[in-house]
Amino acid sequence: MDRLVLFDVDRTLIGRSQCHHDAFSYAFKKVYNVDVDIKIINYGGMTDPDIAIRVLKKIGLNEDLILSKLDKCMNEIVDYFQKNVYKDTIPILPGVNDLLELLSNNGTLLGLVTGNLESIAWGKMKSIHIDHYFKLGGFGSDNINRTELVKIAIKKAENNFNFNGKTFVIGDTPRDIKAGFEANAKTIAVATGTYSVKELRDYDADFVFQNLENKEEILNIILKNR
């Protein structure tokens, strides 16, 4: 295979997951005995462990304390999500189904690169019935650094699918663009999150779209770009 496309999850493939959001507050209370919402920071494009660390440091917790209980915190987030995701209504964003089908039919290897912990990412994909498109991924449970997640996903593609070619990272934040650039991938940004088309262009994404509805043009970029 000579084309690998790695999709961010939140605000790229899907809209907001209330269950995932609430899982942080639940885990913070249970593990650290604090009441705090992750919205106190700009967490777009961050990994779940990094979100937790930054939120807890912002309210004054000692870093050594945070890190000593971080694994337990992540486990509680997963546990809450898995027990409550059935109540969630996760919206799939415009153009996603058609683009995934088109890319899949054209022999492109598809994966995820997301700050979500792995079981949460797959849980979201299964809940909206698109998990079968994705063969691999780099997840927040693999590494706290997003660039490393791209590299991990590429390595999985090389080791398990004989991939040797061009990688594309598709996401909605400057952190997605930066991670793709640092991992020597082409970047396709979509203004389906909190950043506008202009802002994403200013962050030097290789290609920028309003959303994923322009499937033929996106396919052409992926197949023809060398």
Protein topology:
Layout: E1 3-7, H1 18-32, H2 48-58, H3 63-68, H4 70-84, H5 96-105, E2 109-114, H6 118-127, E3 136-139, H7 146-161, E4 166-171, H8 174-182, E5 186-190, H9 197-202, E6 207-209, H10 215-224
Parallel strand pairs: 1-2, 1-4, 2-3, 4-5, 5-6
Question: Would you mind describing this structure in some detail?
Answer:
The protein is an alpha/beta fold and 226 residues long. The protein has two domains: 3-15 and 91-224, 3-Layer(aba) Sandwich (Rossmann fold), CATH 3.40.50; 18-87, Putative phosphatase, domain 2 (DNA polymerase, domain 1, Orthogonal Bundle), CATH 1.10.150.240. Helices cover 48% and strands 13% of the residues. It is built from ten helices and six strands; from the N terminus they run βαααααβαβαβαβαβα. It has helices at 18-32, 48-58, 63-68, 70-84, 96-105, 118-127, 146-161, 174-182, 197-202, 215-224, and strands spanning 3-7, 109-114, 136-139, 166-171, 186-190, 207-209. The protein has a six-stranded parallel β-sheet with strand order 3-2-1-4-5-6, sandwiched between helices. Helix 9 (197-202) links the parallel strand 5 (186-190) and strand 6 (207-209). Helix 5 (96-105) runs parallel beside helix 10 and helix 7 packs across helix 8 (174-182). The mean pLDDT is 97.
